[in-house]
Design brief:
With 242 residues, the protein is α+β, with helices and mostly antiparallel strands. The chain has 2 domains: 65 residues, Winged helix-like DNA-binding domain superfamily/Winged helix DNA-binding domain (Arc Repressor Mutant, subunit A, Orthogonal Bundle); 139 residues, Chorismate lyase-like (Chorismate lyase), CATH 3.40.1410. It is built from 7 helices and 8 strands. The strands form 2 sheets. Strands 3-4-5-8-7-6 form a 6-stranded antiparallel beta sheet. A two-stranded antiparallel sheet has the order 1-2. A hairpin with a 2-residue loop joins strand 7 and strand 8. Helix 1 packs across helix 3 and helix 2 crosses helix 3. The N terminus and C terminus are likely disordered.
Length: 242
């Protein structure tokens, strides 16, 4: 946890000025994920502070997931899925195993389809263009916990359909090959479709938690996914730190 140090009335510790400047510029996408950021020497000259001050600012930003530091090379802007203060996308497999439970998945759809106009627009494709589609049910100790209906832009992840999703989840694969920088999502309480109710083993009138998420990697849409969870079996947990 970062310590806010205030020096006198209205004066902020120098390292916090450097840190806040870099956070603000990262939020404006001045440096894209993986892009080299200013060196310690450049920041020392820009702010007129000591190297120790700059090092502390960078060290805290690294601990919070905003930047990645490579010794002897420099400081790089981190990918969004590592920035917990903005958004953390956790893999369901990891969540289940963290509880000491067993995860397994059943793949019901895994194929290339033609994208209708509305879907194509979401993925930056022409209507009728090829799109990858998977429909997977994830289980927690044998109980259906999530119905994952996902469409993927082939240009962003050309090997998507080659992956064995009974061994690796789509989230694991996508975060490895197309780390995201932008995400748009909605969360709502809703009823499942007839197909979702059947796959999850619930009644059509049972309320569900539905998450719809679209992700983008460096301006290229990657995936659009609908995640449906039985309301009685799932809850959202997380933490936020400014």
């Amino acid at each position: 946890m970062s310590e806010s140090v205030v020096l006198g009335r209205g004066a902020t510790a120098p390292y916090l000025r450097v840190k806040q400047y870099l956070k603000d510029e990262l939020s404006r996408a001045r440096w894209l994920p993986g892009e080299l950021m200013p060196s310690e020497a450049e920041l020392v000259a820009q702010f007129g502070v000591s190297r120790m001050t700059v090092n502390r600012a960078l060290r805290e930003l690294s601990a919070e997931g905003f930047v990645e530091r490579v010794q002897g090379v420099g400081t790089f802007a981190a990918h969004l899925h590592r920035v917990s203060s903005t958004l953390t996308i956790r893999d369901l497999h990891d969540e289940i195993e963290a509880r000491g439970h067993r995860h397994h998945a059943e793949v019901h759809v895994k194929r290339e389809e033609r994208a209708p106009a509305a879907l194509a627009a979401q993925l930056g494709l022409d209507a009728g263009a090829p799109v990858f589609h998977t429909l997977i049910v994830h289980f927690d100790n044998g109980d259906p916990l999530q119905c994952e209906d996902r469409y993927v832009n082939p240009a962003a992840v050309p090997d998507y359909l080659d992956v064995d999703f009974t061994r690796t989840t789509p989230t694991q694969h996508l975060l490895a090959v197309a780390p995201l920088w932008q995400a748009q999502y909605t969360i709502q309480a809703a009823l499942p479709t007839a197909q979702e109710a059947r796959l999850l083993g619930i009644a059509p009138a049972d309320p569900c938690l539905v998450v719809v998420r679209r992700t983008v990697d460096r301006g290229v849409p990657v995936t659009l996914v609908r995640l449906v969870h039985p309301g009685a079996r799932y809850q959202i947990e997380g933490q936020f730190s400014p």
